[in-house]
Amino acid sequence: MEVLILRYTDFVWNLVRQYRGGADAEDLAQEGFLGLISAACRYDPIRGVPFSAYAGRCVTNRVVSALRRSRNIPLPVGAADMPPFSLVQDTERTPDSVVQSRLETAELCCTMLNCLSKREYQVCMLIYGGASYAQAAERLHLSVKSVDNALQRARRKLHSAAADVV
Question: Which of 61, 80, 102, 124 is most exposed by smallest CB count within 10 Å?
Answer without folding.
Answer: 80
